[in-house]
Write a structure and sequence with these properties.
- Helices cover about 40% and strands about 20% of the residues.
- With about 270 residues, it is α/β, with parallel strands linked by helices.
- The protein folds into two domains: about 130 residues, 3-Layer(aba) Sandwich (Rossmann fold), CATH 3.40.50.10090; about 130 residues, 3-Layer(aba) Sandwich (Rossmann fold), CATH 3.40.50.10090.
- The protein has a five-stranded parallel beta sheet with strand order 2-1-8-9-10, with helices on both faces. A five-stranded mixed beta sheet has the order 3-7-6-4-5.
- The radius of gyration is 19 Å and the shape is elongated.
């Protein structure tokens, strides 16, 4: 991390779930940035007996899949737990693919296998451009993810002739915290950079502020870091004006993005 410039003066609000905070928090602090947290999405293990039975059935026939795709770090973490419960190692028939470097590292570390991932970008759009996913006709593919989520990846693979199964290995739900609580955090902690790493989190934030134009104006004046062109476009439609595109949702990409803001006159507490 020594190649990064100092982030002194930046007061960064991380909106990731609490269990994903440690790596990025440690790195930002090493670079003299100040880090604060407000989770917009809650992550939990699957509790429904019916859903658990479905996951178990699919994991037990893992060797029937040609490719296993992990679309988030939580998908890799919880997916690996399920796989290790039923297999001593990943079946050799399966090619392992991750949406980005952070997810790939988690999958590789936990499963002890090689993992393929896009070298540029960490979105589903980048994922479908991988050579491994260009010719998938008659291939059986398992996508590890949370409940709900985008259908883009599965749709593209099905259009290309693949058979696709979802293994929804964790649940996610909107934060129960209010827009007033978020604004209090932003104001009292003098936040001058926001980070959003998923469309779900951005949607939750938008819904929090739909009924308050005054609060929206304050929120939208803060620089926002997002990991993909899709999220940048979504943030623009919601009203954010200062948007920085990181090269993915991983720690390295997210940490690199705020550097450019050290050269800006950042908004103070009174301006947001």
């Amino acid at each position: 991390m020594s190649s990064h410039k100092s982030l002194a003066g930046l007061r960064v609000l991380i909106t990731r779930p609490e269990r994903q905070l440690e790596p990025i928090t440690d790195t930002l602090r090493q670079l003299d940035g100040m880090v604060f947290h407000f989770s917009l999405i809650e992550i939990e293990k699957i509790k429904s007996a019916t859903r658990i039975a479905v996951i178990k059935q699919k994991v037990e026939r893992l060797k029937n899949y040609d490719k296993l795709i992990f679309v988030s770090s939580n998908a890799a973490k919880y997916g690996a737990e399920w796989i290790k419960r039923h297999w001593t190692k990943v079946p050799t028939e399966c090619e392992i693919i991750a949406i980005g470097p952070s997810t790939a590292k988690i999958a590789s570390d936990l499963l002890g296998c090689e993992v393929i991932f896009p070298q540029l970008g960490s979105s589903s759009e980048d994922l479908v451009s991988l050579p491994s996913l260009l010719d998938v006709a008659h291939k059986n593919i398992a996508i590890f993810r949370g409940t709900g989520g985008r259908e883009f990846l599965a749709s593209r693979l099905i259009e290309s002739g693949a058979e696709v199964d979802y293994l929804e290995v964790y649940s996610r739900s909107p934060s129960v915290q209010s827009s007033q609580q978020l604004l209090k955090t932003i104001t009292e902690d003098r936040i001058n950079v926001l980070t959003i790493t998923s469309g779900d989190s951005l949607e939750v934030m938008n819904k929090m502020f739909l009924e308050s134009k005054e609060h929206c104006a304050r929120l939208f004046s803060i620089p926002l870091i997002v990991p993909s062109v899709r999220l940048r476009a979504l943030a623009e439609t919601f009203g954010f004006r200062l948007i920085k595109l990181a090269q993915g949702a991983g720690v390295e990409a997210t940490v690199s993005a705020p550097v450019s803001y050290t050269h800006l006159t950042l908004p103070t507490n009174r301006e947001v």
